[in-house]
């Protein structure tokens, strides 16, 4: 069978032309054409397209046909082989940013508020995706991750750890999608990065014995003073205090919505806090300044900021911060009461047991906590407590 030449192809009229060994050119009336490879495998004749005459030259077509003839000689179907190669190539083209968003979507149900606040995704968005987001996830290795996290590995240790942990979840998600990834790539990168020099510092707290003296300084019936008083008396975090609404208070119980609780604590249920006599008095004073249903509104709009109470303590020359009063309360419980561990932890809405244990334990120790918080309030107000204004 005669071989085709470039000149023959150029001058060929519409029709089918054989180059030999199964390679055929189908010429069209518009001057274009299509290369086809014909082969016999397991007693069955098949044809596969190799590409158009424009992008695929005669030389290219012969090389492609030669490679496919080798597969046929080995009993491998070239059409199925090419489809498999295309699927693998498509799988490996998944960009990290796309897989990361898909992983985030799959985890939303387990995140507080469906992750709307962005805290789960932000370490990736700020520190990983700007550098690696447009790279296929299957091509990311430990050197890539090392170079990405190295600038913050020691200076922002906690953030870097979160970014690495989130990236590990994304890599696991990619594996679940069937992508060709190294499940150990993040662990390898951590070994290359080494131990972090950054020391995690706890939020400064006030010794519980000094709390009454400080509480006595909060004598003005201002939003900031009253917010700090309620924070100290209840052991609540800053957010539930700042976003407290009138409808959350019913008699001597404050029910904090799950959305205002921290992380998985809020993902499960609302949290009830029994109110001491002093806490009720503070709430009554705060009601005079209520705006839009919020007990502690800002002087401009919305509620007081997270830093408002901290700035007040700074101006008094204190190292302690508002969140530290939770530590003050917890230490007081340990040193001055006989409160069982589980009750003391419940005072701060800590989850010290597994979800299964919490499911079967149908109590939040409300009555026992009420006695303890009343005792705590009596202690806090023991040094010339501020009078109602």
UniProtKB/TrEMBL annotation:
Concerning PROSITE patterns, the annotation shows: TYR_RECOMBINASE
Describe the location of the Tyr recombinase domain by residue ranges: 201-373
GO molecular function terms attached to this record:
DNA binding
Quick check: keyword Transcription regulation in the entry? no
Keywords (alphabetical) are: DNA integration, DNA recombination, DNA-binding
> Which InterPro entries does the protein's record reference?
DNA_brk_join_enz, Integrase-like_cat_sf, Integrase_catalytic, Integrase_DNA-bd_sf, Integrase_DNA_bind_dom, Integrase_recombinase_N, Phage_int_M, Phage_Integrase
PANTHER family, per the entry: PROPHAGE INTEGRASE, PROPHAGE INTEGRASE INTS-RELATED
Instruction: Please report which protein family the annotation says this sequence is part of.
Output: Belongs to the 'phage' integrase family.
Return the protein name. Integrase arm-type DNA-binding domain-containing protein
What species does this protein belong to?
Rhodobacter flavimaris
Upper taxonomic lineage:
Bacteria, Pseudomonadati, Pseudomonadota, Alphaproteobacteria, Rhodobacterales
